[in-house]
Amino acid sequence: MPSKITIASIIGLLVASTSAQTNTTYPVYPNNFNWQRTYPALFDSLGRWAVPPTNSSEVVAWYASINKTLIPPAPIIALNATTSALIDPYAVGQNPYCDWSFDTCSRPSDVRICPDKGVWGLTFDDGPTPDGSKLYDFLAQSNQKATLFYIGIMVAQYPSIAQKGCAAGHQIGVHTWSHHPLTTLTNEQIVAELMWTATIIKEVCGITPRYFRPPTGDFDDRVRFIAESLGFTPIIWDLDTNDWTIGTAGSQVTTATEDASFAKWIAGVSNDTTGHICLQHELNNITVNEAIKNLPALQKAYKVMPVASCTNEQHPYTENIIFPTINNTALQPNSLPINGSTTSSTSNITSASPSISAGGLSANSSSKNAAAPNASGSSALIAAFAAAFVCFVFSL
Fold first, then answer.
1. Is 172 helix (H, G, I), strand (E, B) or coil?
2. Which of 89, 132, 179, 315 has the most C-beta neighbours closer than 10 Å?
3. 57-66: buried (b, 16+ CB within 10 Å) or exposed (e) per residue?
């Protein structure tokens, strides 16, 4: 079930976390990477994560690729002025556009579970983060792969940590650019949120995800159609730790209650009829420590793997990369690129102009200087990615 915490609380938590994370020894965007493209401004005038503008040449080109006459006419959802909660314009259970936020409604194309009993889809949202780096180390020590849903703004701030997650062989998915609830955005804004995130992941890691997770699980048929038109499939969940709420005002979730949830899920594995996809976060030290604490017991009860593996999705990227799955663990000789370039099977990312207004960079410039990590697509990163895949194959 989606959390009952208000959308404003979710966004506020992430913005506060972002502000805290920028006060580290990490070099600051845009001086933290040898960027080959310019990107939208990360923050607005109040320091909040900014939805990308829709008048750039890139967004115009991406939106032009969609058949607008087929976009479902679902209304743009408003937020309550007092509580900032999403306002359902329809009676309970009567929303005709299959809105997950209101009715936990899903379509057959949505990925909600791992089909096989005893299988656990391990997912972490809101990366890359400095605390997530510790999680990646633990996963490597455990020879465990996961699905990581990256926020575009976080990739811009922590490209080296994003590369660490990619090089480890985890499945990488899109978690939008600014983590705004998608049903509250215009069609063009939805396009910008998805495509800018895919674009920056491509630059940093050399891969273009085909899967996305809507922030807070907020999506409907309008969002589905736009995303699918751009080549993205939604991954949601059937189990929720609510780990991100620990320590927040009004939350009844604690580390003890999260531990109890895992104990319940582990004890109930024999009664399951399908596998699961669980929502967790690499948001902060608390969520990461909880993941590290509970994973060993989870691994004893379930076959734990990325969502692509449990759903037998061999191609979670547009590039010619074969991902090991539960039914096919054999890597083909040509399954991974062996040099710095990758070939995309779509033209969505590369068709638009490679630059926009310099305001996207100057708005976030900093005087801090530090050695920037290498640009994306390096041979070393791809080699590490391949090596991680090989290790993962033998664990399935």
1. strand
2. 132
3. ebbebbbebb
Question: Do the bridges between strand 147-150 and strand 303-305 make them parallel or antiparallel, or are there none, so unpaired?
Answer: unpaired
User: How far, in Å, CA of 23 to CA of 78, rounded?
Assistant: 33
Beta-ladder partners of 125: 149, 281
Please, what is the average pLDDT of the chain?
Answer: 84
What integer is the mean pLDDT of 56-84? 97
Q: Please say whether the beta carbons of 280 and 292 come within 8 A.
A: no
Q: How far apart are the first and last CA of the chain?
A: 29
Asked if 287 and 246 count as a contact pair (C-beta separation under 8 A), the reply is: yes
Distance CA 266, CA 297 (A): 8
User: Which amino acid is it at 307?
Assistant: V
Upstream peptide bond of 130 is cis (omega within 30 degrees of 0) = no
State pLDDT tens for residues 15-64.
Answer: 334 433 444 578 999 999 999 999 999 999 999 999 999 999 999 999 99
Q: How confident is the model at residue 344 (pLDDT cuts 50, 70, 90)?
A: very low
Instruction: State pLDDT tens for residues 135-144.
Output: 999 999 999 9
Q: Which helix (H) or strand (E) holds 123?
A: strand 119-127
Scanning 65-186, the segments in alpha helix (DSSP H) are 100-103, 130-141, 152-157, 159-167
Distance between CA atoms of 7 and 79, rounded to whole angstroms? 8
Q: DSSP states of 260-295 as a string?
A: HHHHHHHHTGGG-SS-EEEEEE-SSHHHHHHHHHHH
Region of poorest pLDDT, from 14-28, 164-178, 207-221: 14-28
Cα dist from 32 to 5, 359, 364, 386, whole Å: 34, 17, 12, 25
Superfamily of structural domain 7-393: Glycoside hydrolase/deacetylase (3.20.20.370)
- Catalytic sites, residue numbers: 125, 281
Please state the pTM of the whole predicted model. 0.83
As a whole number, mean pLDDT of residues 110-116 equals 98
Is a pLDDT exceeding 80 seen at residue 6?
no
Contact 279, 237 (CB under 8 A): yes
Query: What string of DSSP letters covers 343-365?
Result: -BS-STTTSS-S---THHHHTT-
